[in-house]
Amino acid sequence: MKKKHLLACFLSLATVASFCQSGQRIDTGNYYNYVREGGSINWLRNSDAVPVIIEEIINTGFSYAFIEVGRLIKIDKTTSLVLQVSYHNNEINFGFIYESGHGIPVLLSDRDYLKDESRDDFTQTEHPLNGPVKYNRIKPLPKNVFLLKERCYWFQFDEKGSAYPVTKDLAIKILRQDIRAYLNKLLATMKQ
User: What is the pLDDT of residue 93?
Assistant: First the structure.
């Protein structure tokens, strides 16, 4: 029991320390203030995001047994949507889309869609084996589908290993904060 307690204390301290830069916590509200000149910028990809989404769903208390990756849902008679991660049982259904794509410069306004209660739209691309790509615009997204955009989860690095405040680990923590915010909002509506 003591080992578990010590491990929990260590992990808590490590988490706090990793969020600190000059005594200030870097989080979803201020990480764009830490973009630095020089170095390279990269973004969390689907392969980074999907395991994090799954972990956060489980950490919130939802059963692993009802989590799916790549679930195809029917929105109406003509429109289908693939969810990167979904949760589906007889009582509750929700899912996450992780939209690929990014650009430079990184802009704080990229996060505006998270604040917009009117729900953002999403364009899904369909790649047939033969023929042109088809674009399916879905507006609005269903209320139980949460959109995350790759362009918001950036990090900096360089070949010398110089320290940049927003590292890949910190970008993952920012992603976790956004996922938790959605799941907490979802739980609050379930209790009403």
Answer: 93
